[in-house]
Lipoprotein (Hungatella effluvii), 208 residues
Amino acid sequence: MKKMKAVLAVLITAGILAGCAGRGGTSTFEPKSSGIFVTDAGTFSTATVETYDSQDYYSEEEWKSFLEENVAAYNAEHGEGAVTLQSCSLKEGTASMIFDYATGSDLAQFTAIYEDTANQVNSIDIIPVAQALEEAGAAGTIFIKTADGKTASTDEIAKKTDYHVVAVDGGPIKIQTEGKIMYTSDGVKLNSSFIAELSEGKNYIIFK
C-alpha cells in the first residue's frame, strides 16, 4: 500500500475530464483526465490520468501487475469484484488507469486507501428522486434546472421518478454521467451536458 501511495504521490494531475457524446443523448467514458463516471445502471468507475517522468517509472507490464496486486488485496478484504481494473496504460509520459466498483462505498474506500485525491469522496451513492428531495429539503438545499439556470420546484423534480440521482459528499470532484444532466444542487458547475464539477460538501446531480 505504501508503495502505491509513493508512486501516486510523484504524479501530477492533468486537465479536465473528457467524454464523448453518444447516440440517444448519452455519453461514453473516454477520459483524458481524472474523474468519476456514473452509469444509468447505477455503477461507478474512476479514471486517474497523470503525467510522469519515464526515468522514474515502471514498464507498462510492471505497472499493470502492480495495480492488479492492489486490487486483489482490496478484494481479499471486501469481496471478489468489489474493485476491478478495467484498463491501464503508460504512453508518452501519461499514466492512465480506470477502475470499476461494485458500490459507491467501494469507490470511496479504495480511493481513500490509495490516496487517489482526484477522485476521493466521503461517500457517493445513487438514490431515488424522493430521497434526494427529502434530504435536500432538510438541509435547505435548492435545485437548479440546467436548461435555463433557474431554480427548479420540488413538485417539478418529484415527477421525474425515472431519473437518476447521484448524491456525493466530499470533493472537489468532477463527475461524468451516462445520461444528460437535468438538475443539480446549487453550486454545482456544469462543464458540459454530461460533466459536472462539484465543490466540497454534499451535492446532488440528477440525470436522465
The chain has two domains: 2-121, 124-172+181-187+201-207.
